[in-house]
TrEMBL record:
Keywords of the record: Golgi apparatus, Lipid-binding, Membrane
Native source species: Cryptosporangium minutisporangium
UniProt keyword tRNA-binding present: no
Main location: Golgi
Membrane topology qualifier: Peripheral membrane protein
Top-rank taxon, per record: Bacteria
InterPro entries: GPP34-like, GPP34-like_sf
The protein, known as: GPP34 family phosphoprotein
Location(s), subcellular: Golgi apparatus membrane
Length: 200
């Protein structure tokens, strides 16, 4: 998998439609970007979290602006934070951080003159086809932690069969889904989405 991109950036690349627009349900998308950042920090042992609570996090820079923005949004470690609140907090700037870094690194370029100011992007160094090729290659071997996390988030978004261009009954889809079954991030995102949709 492309080592330069964090999982949220891979999700963003595959989220663009054929015109280069981001045609998604924004809250769900932003929560998944936030969950991907927190999951990546958890993989790096920079946050301690279970299904319900974020218990602590390292505020030292990670060296990646998307992850550093997530840490900045969390602020200084204090009392335990409900996972729903942590994801909603990080989601506030997750999309800007992800697309900003993709443009800054030349992975995407901004197309001029978007209709009604709707930003359109052109993929330059990474595309949905590249993600698809890497994930299908991973299925034949042993997916990395990055690949398992990406698989889990794409499945949570409902995009995995479409990205891989596989019918729901294809054994490769089942194999990839099983490889990512224990990933923490998507279940935390679902909990956050359910919490904020419910009447309080």
């Amino acid at each position: 998998m492309n080592g330069e991109l964090v999982v949220g950036e891979e999700i963003a690349v595959v989220a663009l439609d054929e015109s280069g627009r981001l045609n998604v349900q924004r809250t769900k998308f932003d929560f998944h970007l936030a969950g991907a950042a927190l999951a990546e920090l958890r993989h790096q042992n920079r946050v301690q979290a279970d299904d319900r609570t974020l218990r602590g996090w390292d505020v030292e820079p990670t060296g990646h602006p998307v992850l550093d923005e997530a840490v900045r949004r969390l602020g200084r470690p204090g009392p335990n934070v409900r996972i729903e609140r942590a994801i909603a907090t990080v989601a506030g700037t997750a999309r800007r951080a992800v697309f900003g870094h993709l443009v800054e690194t030349g992975t995407l370029t901004v197309q001029p003159g978007g209709f009604l100011r709707a930003t359109r992007y052109t993929t330059v160094r990474r595309s949905a086809d590249g993600v698809r090729t890497d994930l299908l290659r991973a299925e034949a071997g042993d997916p990395t932690a990055h690949e398992r996390s990406l698989i889990a988030f794409l499945r949570s978004l409902g995009w995995l069969p479409e990205i891989l261009r596989l019918p729901p009954t294809d054994s490769r889809l089942d194999s990839l889904t099983r490889s990512a079954a224990d990933e923490w991030g998507p279940s935390a995102v679902r909990r956050a989405l359910d919490f904020f949709r419910a009447p309080h």
